[in-house]
């Protein structure tokens, strides 16, 4: 298989098993989601892909090449870019300089930034809509702007695999969709930890669900994300419908302890045609707000 494969990956942290026997296949060009509750091991698994953690057992393979055994961190960074939550330490740089660090794996001390490097950085800034902010200090940006700059840095790496750890944190709904649309349009292999199950269902070709460091289910979102599985994994009541625009699964959630809502009135209760008033109150006399005279 061409693409990325986590093959029976095992990670221990502080002596405890955090990820156990995890196999995840990301065929080349697919968008694969890693889902699961807080603490289920998603970030830990992703960190083995971008060389921040070495698996204790198993392997991370890119087109069959073992990233830890056969490639070092620098060679891996020419193939794999990550957009993660850890971005401390870069706060004193300008936006353009942050994005330019994405070119470092492609440069050597004998070949500093080339014209091509500068063009790639300019294009990456443009792709995320941050051209006009290129000279601002990174530290002065909003959370959403920072996220876009860090995506630009990942794009500047010109990776074959993009690892995303909760990439839509801090983003408003329009920016979330823009970011995931942009990522999808790249046509590269994507492995993303996502909490938003609607976004996962809308963007992922395949999802893998983790619980307590182990793989519980994998497959297309429509097959995997059943109300039964969501109840088991996230301990919520889930109501699944089809999104009227995207045609993908769409969810409404309630706590398992939530009382059932009163049943809506049957159509037979309102036999007259045309729009019905929202309540029994006549439209000519709007209800008074509590506390108004
Ligand atoms: N350096 C560490 N030492 C010990 N335990 C750790 C370390 N890093 C993470 N863990 C633990 O590993 C478990 C999995 O953490 P991880 O961050 O991978 O989960 P996650 O699924 O990404 O969670 P979230 O959705 O909350 O981001 C958690 O219980 C966490 O406390």
UniProtKB/TrEMBL annotation:
<dbReference type="InterPro" id="IPR003439">
    <property type="entry name" value="ABC_transporter-like_ATP-bd"/>
</dbReference>
<keyword id="KW-0067">ATP-binding</keyword>
<keyword id="KW-0547">Nucleotide-binding</keyword>
<keyword id="KW-0813">Transport</keyword>
<dbReference type="GO" id="GO:0016887">
    <property type="term" value="F:ATP hydrolysis activity"/>
</dbReference>
<dbReference type="InterPro" id="IPR027417">
    <property type="entry name" value="P-loop_NTPase"/>
</dbReference>
<dbReference type="InterPro" id="IPR017871">
    <property type="entry name" value="ABC_transporter-like_CS"/>
</dbReference>
<protein>
    <submittedName>
        <fullName>Iron complex transport system ATP-binding protein</fullName>
    </submittedName>
</protein>
<dbReference type="GO" id="GO:0005524">
    <property type="term" value="F:ATP binding"/>
</dbReference>
<feature type="compositionally biased region" description="Pro residues">
    <location>
        <begin position="259"/>
        <end position="276"/>
    </location>
</feature>
<feature type="region of interest" description="Disordered">
    <location>
        <begin position="257"/>
        <end position="293"/>
    </location>
</feature>
<dbReference type="Pfam" id="PF00005">
    <property type="entry name" value="ABC_tran"/>
</dbReference>
<dbReference type="InterPro" id="IPR003593">
    <property type="entry name" value="AAA+_ATPase"/>
</dbReference>
<feature type="domain" description="ABC transporter">
    <location>
        <begin position="4"/>
        <end position="237"/>
    </location>
</feature>
């Amino acid at each position: 298989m061409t693409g990325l494969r986590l093959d029976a990956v095992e990670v221990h942290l502080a002596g405890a098993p955090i990820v156990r026997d995890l196999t995840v296949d990301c065929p080349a060009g697919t968008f694969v989601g890693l889902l699961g509750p807080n603490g289920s091991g998603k970030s830990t698994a992703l960190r083995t892909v971008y060389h921040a953690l070495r698996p204790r057992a198993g392997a991370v393979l890119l087109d069959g090449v073992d990233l830890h055994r056969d490639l070092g961190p620098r060679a891996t960074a020419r193939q794999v870019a990550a957009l993660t939550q850890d971005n401390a330490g870069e706060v004193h740089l300008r936006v353009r300089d942050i994005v330019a660090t994405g070119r470092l794996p492609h440069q050597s001390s004998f070949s500093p930034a080339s014209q091509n490097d500068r063009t790639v950085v300019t294009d990456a800034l443009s792709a995320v809509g941050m051209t006009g902010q290129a000279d601002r200090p990174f530290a002065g940006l909003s959370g959403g702007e920072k996220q876009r700059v860090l995506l630009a840095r990942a794009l500047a790496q010109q990776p074959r695999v993009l690892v995303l750890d909760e990439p839509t944190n801090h983003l408003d709904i329009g920016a979330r969709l823009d970011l995931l649309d942009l990522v999808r349009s790249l046509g590269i292999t994507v492995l993303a930890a996502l909490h938003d199950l609607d976004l996962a269902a809308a963007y992922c070709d395949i999802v893998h669900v983790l619980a307590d460091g182990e793989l519980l289910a994998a497959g297309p979102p429509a097959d995997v994300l059943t109300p039964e599985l969501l109840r088991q994994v996230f301990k919520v009541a889930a109501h699944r419908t089809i999104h009227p625009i995207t045609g993908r699964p769409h969810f409404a959630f309630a706590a398992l302890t939530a009382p059932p809502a009163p049943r809506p009135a049957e159509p037979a209760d309102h036999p007259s045609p045309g729009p019905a008033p929202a309540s029994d109150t006549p439209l000519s006399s709007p209800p008074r707000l509590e506390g108004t005279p």
